[in-house]
Amino acid sequence: MNDKVKIYLLDVFFGWYLAITFHRVFYYHVLLSTDSPDFTWNLMLPYVGVAIIFSVMCLLTGASLGKKIISSTQKGTWQNEFAINIAWILILMTFVTSWVVTKVNIIQMFDHERLNAAGRLFSSLLQPNWNILQKAIMAMIETIYLAFLSTAIALPVSFLLGFLSARNLMKGNPISFALYNILRIITNFTRSIEPLVWAVIFTVWVSSGPFPGMLALMIHTIASLAKQYSEQIEDIDAGPMEAIEATGARPIQVIWFAVVPQIVIPFLSFTIYRWDINVRMATIIGLVGGGGIGSMLIQYQMLSQWNEVGLIVLIIALVVWLMDYLSAKIREALR
Amino acid sequence: MEKLVHISNLQKIYPNGTHALKGVSLDIYKGEFLSIIGLSGSGKSTLLRCINRLHEPTSGTIEFSGKDVTHISGSELRQYRKSIGMIFQHFNLIKRMSVMDNVLSGHLGSIGTFASLVGKFPGSVKEKALNNLDIVGIREKADLRADALSGGQQQRVAIARTLMQNPELLLADEPVASLDPATSHSVMKYLEIMNKQHGCTVVCNLHFLSLVRQYSTRVIALRAGEIVYEGKPQDITEEWFKSIYGEDAVEVEIE
After folding, report:
1. Which CATH number fits the domain A129-334, given the four candidates 3.30.450.190, 3.30.450.40, 1.10.3720.10, 3.40.50.620?
2. Cα(A233)–Cα(A240) distance, rounded to whole angstroms?
3. Can you tell me the ipTM of this complex?
4. pLDDT > 70 in chain A, percent
5. Counting one residue from A and one from B, how many pairs have CB atoms under 8 Å apart?
């Protein structure tokens, strides 16, 4: 696409964005304090019309933000100033729109009744109900073990995938390079889906409880660790590989003697950190039915039993802090 | 003299377009200590790596003991590599493994895959490894981690590693370029021992002419992928030196 077309299309977009935000957000919400009319595709026509007029004027006068972005406008001219101002207005309108869309309501936040409600909640959180301590500890243990199992099962799979998706090992011949590319696509896709979404999928598949939670974490862990492992392998010093290859060793021996010793410590460190992350994740996943302490938390929250919620929050905070501390210590010792 | 390696019209063009070797023809004779000199980027390292096929030649042929090895692959290639030792500028030891394990890794070409993966080297092999550490004078360091050693000691471990292969030919790629002068001589002395006492032919990339004169029996010079000089180390004159290293070059002595 040539630059002129790019500039014009950018200006059309900016004009359209300004028209729609000024009219629907600024005019209705800010000036009139009402909701804007329901969206229909027909409503788009006037905005597009304004956008076209705007972009044609930009084109004729040369005062165009599109031009400033794609090529350049001369400094010190009014066209340049105008383009800069348009940019500022775009940012400002985006902020205003975000504010409106988020339904920010500071007045309500500090209104007497709301503050009272919050006060009640905080005071019951600070008076945890110790009677459910045993039950909460058992649920926490379930979460920790669930996180451990998901990490442990993922480990050998990611280990293998890590090697198969390391560019420096796989680029040698066309077949392995094709496999590398396919695995990259699959793991990137898997990793881009949050564990929470995997948990929803698995709770539908194998019904709710710790098992689907474990599966969800495992899938995400495999993809994440495979990525970290392969990056570590790509980062190794190629010298020892060359040296071992030169002794007449077989490829598998080259990997075992020249690659594995360089990666085993970082691998361990990543794995422990992943377990730590998984304990936190397992808590969140519990909220959508993945078992453990998270499921217990959401049950009490739905019943508005805040003293019980308080105890659970306390236990989660304690365990997360402890795991964080321990995993940092272990990783430090491994270095 | 008997030819060990016969290279004819060797060309190497890297995938990025670099024309590293432009038709190198060279004979390497049994028992000689051949030095290769030339600027960085003149093709010295590429030439060594083509000989043991760490890099694939683009065209030309390499014969080793009268056998064409230019296109061998698989176990034949590994058998061939086994008969050629190699040491590197940065030693290329496995830093986290012990000195002993590093030396044992020189034996990988002669041991079954499974035995090597579980680390079961026969007693005789371990004895040989210790013996080789003795030859390079660091037997007492056997159990230390390789990266706990100084640069010169690490290069000696690398020499002990290649001794495991009983190599007919030793390729040394700037073996002393990252060492200080005193250590350089000690490493060169061990290469000399391999050459004279173990009957191993040595091909060595070097930067210092003083080392070339002291240790080698023959020298070739590469410039931009072509051989521009071949002869006795003593015969390198000022003019030759300038034609190899450029007009502004001044020879630096290493004591």
Report:
1. 1.10.3720.10
2. 13
3. 0.90
4. 99
5. 83
